[in-house]
Amino acid sequence: MLIYAHRGASADFPEGSKAAYEAAIQQGADGFECDVRLTKDQQIICFHDDNTKRLTGADLEIAQTNYAELKQAADVYLFSELLDLAIKNKKSLAIETKHPVPTGGLIEKLLHQLLSKKADEIKASGISISIMSFSWFATQRNIRAGLESVYLFAEPLLLNLNTAGIVGPALQIIKNNPDFV
Questions:
Q1: Packing angle, helices 79-89 and 18-26, rounded to 10
Q2: Is the pTM value of this prediction over 0.70?
């Protein structure tokens, strides 16, 4: 069994922060789960929500705010930094791209470019990287890029359209249909 730290050691540190991921290493996690979003200036950050209000009280929309401004309001972590940390410490990654977003598939395009640029380091480290999304279109973009893809689904009917090698049902589906798993 592998243990992935959900948004890092998010019970002990702000979720998705550098401190949370560093603590996850100390706690012995096998890998990291992270949610990624694009800032207004097209920086990929590790952040679950579409705005900062729940975590900071400041109501800033991620897609409408530059990274430098977000950094002042919240403990945001660049995905490129998390990727470097994962490679250095041999921690696998489960990355969720969040949708819908104003930039559509740009998040996948930039993520694919970064992973391609770091491909030799990723391979040498021995880590695995999977990309997941509740968006069928995002999952298809990841499959076409040749990446390990996970289709997360909230509607069982959409499962018939799946071409990803791995699927992940939403919690409500499992609660309503325990025999599904």
A1: 10
A2: yes
> Is the pLDDT reported for residue 87 higher than 80?
yes
Please indicate, yes or no, if residue 162 is contained in any of the structural domains: no
- Active-site hit among 48, 91, 112, 141: 48
Give the residue numbers spanning the domain of 118: 4-147
Residue 178: inside a domain, yes or no?
no
What are the beta bridge partners of residue 51?
61
Residue 169 to residue 180: CA distance in whole angstroms: 9
Q: What is the CATH number of the domain that holds 33?
A: 3.20.20.190
**Which of 51-55, 62-66, 95-99, 163-167 has the least mean pLDDT?**
163-167
End-to-end CA distance of the chain: 17
How far is residue 22's CA from residue 88's CA, in Å, rounded to a whole number? 12
Number of domains in the chain: 1
Q: What is the DSSP letter of 10?
A: T
Measuring CA to CA, which residue among 173, 113, 111, 161 is closest to residue 135? 161
β-strands 4-6, 31-38 pairing: parallel
User: 6 catalytic, yes or no?
Assistant: yes
Q: Looking at 6, 7, 91, 112, which residue is catalytic?
A: 6
What tokens appear for 125 in the block?
Answer: 């480290």
User: 25 lies in a domain?
Assistant: yes
